[in-house]
Amino acid sequence: MSGIETIVRGRLCQSLSKPAEEAASLDMNAALGDDLGLASLDLIMLMTAVCNEAGVPLTSLGEEDLARLRTPADIVSLLSAKAAA
Q1: Residues 20, 4, 31, 25, CA torsion sign
Q2: Which DSSP category does 14 fall into?
Q3: Mean pLDDT for the chain overall
Q4: Which of 34, 39, 48, 65 could form a disulfide with 61 if both were Cys (CB 3.0 to 4.6 A apart)?
Q5: How confident is the model over 48-73, as a mean pLDDT?
Q6: Are 17 and 38 in contact (CB under 8 A)?
Q7: Rg of the chain over all Cα atoms, to the nearest angstrom
Q8: Hey, what's the torsion of the CAs at 70, 35, 28, 84, to 10 degrees?
Q9: Cα separation of 57 and 20, whole Å?
């Protein structure tokens, strides 16, 4: 598991009010809205926290990047690419 995936899993648990012990069992292909119940504001708060912790400036993400986020795996892919750039 990559460092960014660990960060996403941990922050997602916080957003969902789940214990940190459940982070490893989160379905990374679950739909952020439909399956996990995150509203747009929840997603913005999640992305802000994940970007801060991962050291990826939130300003490096465009509207198109954010619009393509459907699953936690999408967040990991996007931030991994931005961190490597």
Answers
A1: negative
A2: H
A3: 93
A4: 65
A5: 94
A6: no
A7: 12
A8: 30
A9: 25
CB atoms within 10 A of CB 51: 21
pLDDT at 74: 98
Could you tell me which residue, 85 or 61, shows the higher pLDDT? Answer: 61
Q: pLDDT tens-digit profile of 13-53?
A: 999 999 999 999 999 999 999 999 999 999 999 999 999 99
**11 close to 56: Cβ distance less than 8 angstroms:** no
What is the full DSSP assignment across 25-36? G--TTS-TTTTT
d(CA 78, CA 75): 5
CB atoms within 10 A of CB 18: 13
Cα angle, residue 27 at apex, residues 67 and 52 outer, rounded to 5° = 55
Which residue type sits at 13? Answer: C
Q: Minimal CA–CA distance to 76: which of 41, 51, 44?
A: 51
